[in-house]
Amino acid sequence: MDLRKDRIKVSVRIKPFLNCQDASTACLHIISKEPPVLLVAERAQTYVFDNIFPEDVNQESVYVDAVKPFVDYVKKGFNYTVFAYGQTGTGKTYTMGSASQKSKDSVHTGIIPRALKQLFEEVDNSNIEAKISISFSEVYNEKVFDLLLKNNKSPLPVIGFTVQGLSKKHVKSVFEAIELLETGNSNRHVGETKQNLNSSRSHGIFTVYYTTKNGGKEISGELNLVDLAGSERARKTGSRGNTFQEGVNINKGLLSIGQVISALSTKSTHIPYRQSTITSILQASLNVDNYITLIACVSAKMEDASETLQTLDFAHRAKKIRCNPEIIAKYKKENPGIPLSTPLKRPSSTPFRTPAVKQHKMQLLPVINNDNSHSLKNQGSITFSTSSSSDDVQQTISPVIRKYMHQMEASLKGRFESVIKNSIRPTRSSPRNKENMSILEWSTLQNEIARIVRKEMAQFTLEKSVMVTSSPIRDDEALKARRLFNNGSPDDAEQETLGNKPLETVQDCFKVPELPVGKCKSKKILVSPTDIETVPRIDTRRSLRLSLKNTNQISDQDTSLNEFTRSLGDGDSHKYNSRRRSVRISKAVEPLSTLKRNSVKGSNDSPFTSHSKKVLTILNKGTSKDLEKLHTIGCKTADQIILFRALKSRFNKIDDLLKLPGWSQKKYDRFVNLNLLHRD
Ligand SMILES: Nc1ncnc2c1ncn2[C@@H]1O[C@H](COP(=O)(O)OP(=O)(O)OP(=O)(O)O)[C@@H](O)[C@H]1O
After folding, report:
1. 120, 123, 633, 674: which sits with the fewest CB atoms below 10 Å from its CB?
2. 3-334 maps to CATH 3.40.850.10
3. Is residue 247 in contact with ligand 1, taking CB distance under 6 Å?
4. Can you tell me which atom of ligand 1 is nearest the CA of 231?
5. pLDDT of 576
């Protein structure tokens, strides 16, 4: 069994727009179908899920792709849980099919009735003897109610993780089962809010108990279909009094589900099931020995962007959970009565996963087999450490990372070899001095190796943060997404820089090497591959750097970006760009006198105009590093600028900065003043 595939399945369903006006300002875009990648324009963030269902998807496709294959596990004696999560009014109840089934139009039939139909159909067709029972409960205001008992107003006690006295009704046909679903729905707490006229005010749990016999042995599985109440903001729902209190309890329950998901995804030893009623009673369902499908329902409306991001973050966390029901069942069978240790001990033939990346990083450090540099030279090769766990690690990491590691290993090997060759020079010294000489060379070598490894690691961290889980996105999909922002036509950036080059990753499709996917964690990881040669020497003394700075003047002819960045200190001497930020900035924004001296010969531009043009060039073509040299531009703003010009338009004048989301007049004024620009 392939362990790597055994994750909780996470699908996202986007609610259709009610009017076309909203559609033009959608904050969600599916930029690739295989693998399914969703772009949240608001935060320039991409997510990869098992399925992403667009607005126009029908109920049948959702069921077939997200749920149908797993219902069979219930018949094999496993537990399977489907739960719908999301903001209020995004279609959870509609998707689950826990709303009234009175509509005769089968197009709208949701997951619950379809799953019941599948179970009964297969039982009928194969003449298997199976007993199917149903329970339906709700968690309302932190209390559990039995929905199959009419007019039942008294809550059921929860002891440990079980609801006491919950009724289980035996059903013989799909019609009887759907009737119970109807009865339960009619008893469920619903209310009207500004966001949903028929808002579920409780979490609904519909459970199908399936028992059959196989060779005289009883097999029982459970199918849990959970329609969670929607997360809501009192300001948006306009809830008051009772409804407000319901909202508080709903959010509390959802928060604790989020904490359980986080704990499961990080393989924490403590899973906080007892924090709320819903997590207590879902303890048996939200567990790694169950098959789980999460359907995150989201709205693509711009005004709902923050709730949508919250739902997607939740779904993304859930995606990290690994559940291995078959392995756990095997373990329980082989070790009856022995409780499962946490984290789950896997059979020795199956490798551990968690520390894979770290271990591998360590392995990338070369082991130089020979102490004698002369023999190294003769040997001309380096052996890389391959610890006994290497194979395990190789098997458990994602293929994309593995491929990257191979490339990295090959490139490192080549680099080390050339560094070693260059550091070894024929020695004319006596045998006594020879030893000193090799020590001296070794320290240089160490510096070089440290420099290369550090850079490769930074690059690796960047690659890892950029959706390493996704395989290359198809060219046409990426272009489609890109053009979406340009009213259907290719933009300058696309034509200028991508040319005919195939688009390979999410980054490529926006031509931004440092496209921030996820939060920009620190500046040091934003290293573009081409910067590898520009790493500062570790042993360069400050005095040397400063003296080099003084020889570093702006050329009169500098107009292109490269020349300009060189004038700022980057391109001139690749080896010595580690001078302090203050020095760099003082070069970036030159004093007026220098500008006058250096203004382009024969040009009528005033020093201010030429300075503004240079800043404009940086805004339009500068890398993240270049942009950060300007006052008031930090790494996040730099990324925002890069993204803006890639997705929307270039900057024709400095004023265009005001078009950036979040740029107030005050912020713009500060930028203009501190960078000594004059207003356009
Ligand atoms: N994909 C869809 N196609 C057609 N109608 C939809 C779709 N999704 C939702 N709706 C409609 O939107 C309305 C709100 O949906 P629903 O009640 O399922 O939301 P919800 O997420 O369950 O909300 P709450 O959390 O408040 O209960 C319903 O009228 C439903 O029919």
Report:
1. 674
2. yes
3. no
4. 25
5. 38
